[in-house]
Amino acid sequence: MTHGTDHLAIAICVAVIALTLWVTFAVARRSRSADGFFAAGRSIGSWQNGFAISGEFISAGSFLGTTGLIFYQGVDGTVILFASVISFLPVLFLLAEKMRNIGKYTIADVLVFRSGSRRVRVAVALSTLATCTFVLLAQMVAAGTLLESVAGIPFWVSVLVAGLLMAVYVFVGGMLATAWVQVIKSSILAILAIIIGVGVLSKFGFSFPLLLDSATHNAAAGDAILSPGQIFGSGGPVNLVSYALTFALGTAGMAHILIRFFTVPEAATARRSLGWTVALCSMFYLIVVVMGFGAAALLGANGSERVGTSGNLAAPALVTDLGGGAGTIGGSLALAMVSAVAFASIIAVVAGVVISAAGTFARDVWPTVTRAPAGEVDDQSQAVVARYGAVVFSLIAIALTMVIGDDTNITYFMGMAFMVAASAHLPALVLSLNWRGFTATGAMYGILVGLSSTIITLMLTPALWPGSGPAPLTIQLPVVITLPLSLIACVVGSLLSRPDRTGAADADEKFAEMIVRSETGLGAEVASAH
């Protein structure tokens, strides 16, 4: 890159960040209350929430990482995209409206509605923080790699800037600021993606078959780019199914996405917001497919040197060529725009993840650590703890990212996060909302077994196996093992902890209250007046 390109990329990054910071400080006054900080005053409309959820979902993993996967691995790299679109169906039919009516600020609020168990809160907190950590590592690695390659800023400086910015968004503006930052990011990214998609297709006469034909001739993998097995061949069909299920079911357990449903005024708005989300994500993911195969076709086999071994720079390299090539005004401008929007996308996602982690710490961990009696730590105090917790969590994320470095495909980190969410959260949430006999012990067993089995099985996969020989598991994301284990633990734990006759009556009464509230919204949290 030329020195001019460095300045242009930095200037556009600063402009986009300045816009989001202005929004953050503009809404700061409305985020002073606990309801404003944790749930944006429950004032977010359907399209805004749909765009915000899309902003959480369309991360650097899909924009940068998946484009790189398709560049190297072809059709296998598209599995995550199609599974991700399907993933909103379980959220729509099983969780969205019920969670909005039952919960308050975190998914633990839903799981403890019937029992009030602190043990469940702590268990959910552990799994939520693990999920958030994996997502943050993916986004922070992407931020560091992007600014280092495009603007010449050292990796550690890029990571530090990203970490400090996400701390500011959450500390100052809370959920309302992160929601509007996501809306801005999603809008800009959607427009930019359409321009890139049109630019790629125009090179092939707007013929997608011609694009694929060119990709088979120029891709590093050759004809194999259109054949399955590049990623999942070693594990067979089970590997493919498990990988797809991880992303298809993981969304329904991702805390930073599910808490978005607490920000809307009523359950119907939560349902409608998913329509906007599916529409925006479907459009974007189709364009990512075009970008991935377009990069393979236009960059060619020698493009591997430009996109790196991880493939995370395939999108920036592609838009540079679309703009006229490195060193040209058009190429420099295109690269600067994509880099700035990608960086803003990363910051928006990590801000949403951090507020989820901070809320979990303040509401689910802090009262237990301080041994405060139930109900003694009020919502306002928890909001204060969450603000400072966001800063601490940001600093931890910065340190971990610097230790890991930048030589990995960030999509795999996202897969690990989705696997924890699918295994540790989804079974407990679904059973809690639908099974009368589900108990706090069952929830705790299911969450802890889901979390521990995920960590153990991931250590046995090829990506993380520390031994010198072949890894014991050929499945990359073994959710087909961990999800059933978590479900069994939920059921067994509940059956072994059946309450006595008096306790059973109380449990039945609480379950009936939950069903009425989840279906009708009676007693649900209401929007705050501003």
TrEMBL record:
It is found in: Cell membrane. It comes from the Bacteria. GO terms for cellular component: plasma membrane. One of its GO terms (molecular function) is acetate transmembrane transporter activity. Its main location: membrane. The chain crosses the membrane at residues 6-28, 49-72, 78-96, 122-147, 153-181, 188-206, 240-262, 274-299, 333-362, 383-404, 410-431, 443-465, 477-496. InterPro entries: Na/Glc_symporter_sf (IPR038377), Na/solute_symporter (IPR001734), Sodium:Solute_Symporter (IPR050277). CDD domains: SLC5sbd_u4. It is a multi-pass membrane protein. The keyword Membrane applies. One of its GO terms (biological process) is plasma membrane acetate transport. Keywords: Cell membrane, Membrane, Symport, Transmembrane, Transmembrane helix, Transport. Belongs to the sodium:solute symporter (SSF) (TC 2.A.21) family. This is Cation acetate symporter. It comes from Gordonia desulfuricans. The lineage of its organism: Bacteria, Bacillati, Actinomycetota, Actinomycetes, Mycobacteriales.
